[in-house]
Amino acid sequence: MDWHKLIENEKLTQWQRWLHQHPELAFEETVTSGFIYDTLAALNSMELLKPTPTSVIAVLKGARTGPTIGLRADIDALPMEEEAGVEFKSLVKGKMHACGHDAHTAMLLGAASALSQMKSELAGTVKFIFQHAEEYPPGGAAEIISSGLLDDVDCFFANHVSPDAPVGTVKSRVGPMMASVDSIFLNITGKGAHGGMPHQSVDPIVVGSEIVLNLNNIVARSVSPLDSAVISVGKFSAGTVNNVIPETAEILATVRATSDETRDFVETRINAMIEGICKAYGAAYDLEYRRGYAPLVNDEKCVEIVRGVAESILGGSGYMAAERIMAGDDFSAYQRIAPGAMVNISSGFEDPFENYPIHNTKFRINPGVLSIGAKMYVGYALAAMHVD
Question: Which residues form the catalytic set?
C-alpha cells in the first residue's frame, strides 16, 4: 500500500484552521480536547482514553504483535493577541496559537487517520498522545505519565514546527537538544530608611544588585565553557520613590542547562550564593527554586529513525542536524520513561520577511508543512515497527 496517499491535505488544513481559530490556554483545553476526541471517534478504529480532563490518548493496535510507539502533539495556546492577519485568525481575544500547536495536532490527527486504515499491516501498537499544558511548566506531560497509560511505550516521537527555514527540511540531533527550564522567585527583606541616611538601612536594592551580578558569574566562572547553562534575570523590582530606601526587593529569573549534572550544580551554587550575600549584608530572604522541564536529550536510535524517514519523504537533503537551543519542552518527561526524539519540521516561507519566530504575535505557518509532519509521524511508527 502506498500509505502516502492516505494523508488527506484538505482535512489537515481544515483541522489546523479550526484549531487555530479556537485557542485555549494550558489546563483549559476543554473545547480543543473535545474536538480531538470527536474527530478520532469518527475513525471508529481506536480505543480513546482521557488521562486528564483536557488531554486525549488514542490507542491503535495492529494485527500483529510488536513494539508500542508513542506519538505526541501538544495542544495548548498562548495568552497573546494575534496580529498575523490570516483569514482564519483566532476568534478568542487575547489567545493565539503562536507556537504551532494547532499544526502539531492536525499533523497527528492526520497520522491517526492514515494509520487506522493500515491496522492489518501494523506489527505493534501506536499511542497517539494529544497533550495539554506544554506551555506552562512543569507541563502536562508529567500528569499524563503519572496516569500509567504510557508505561508500556518503547519509544516516543514528537514534531515541532520551525519557521527558521522554508518548508522541505527536517532537523533533529543525538544527545542534548533543548534545555531544562527552572525558575527563581526571590524576595529579599532588609530594613527601610531615609535615602539621606543609608547607614540606618539594610538596603535590599544593594543586596539584590550583588545577587544579580553574581548570578551571571556562576555560569561565566563555575560552569565549563564546553557545557551549556543560562541564568537570566527577568525582573528586579523595589521601592516606590527616589528618597526612600525600601524594605523589600523582588527578583525573578530563569535557569537553564542541557544536562542533569549541570542543572543540579547550578541550583546548588545559586542557593549558596544567595544565602552568603544575604547573610553578609544582614538581610533576610525567601527563595523558591521551582523546577520545570528536564533537559531534552534525544536517543541515537530514535534519531536514526527520524533521519531515515525524512530522507525517504524529502530526499537525501531533507534531513539536517539541529542545533542545541536553550528553550525547553516537556517532551523531555517522556524521555525519562523510554527513549525518544524531538523533531523540528521547517515551516517557513521562501520570502524571509514572511517568517516570524514562535511566540510572536505575527507567527504563522506555511500550510505545506502539515502533510510533511503527518507523513513523518506515520513514518516514525512504521520504521519503529520495521514495517515497509
Answer: 76, 134
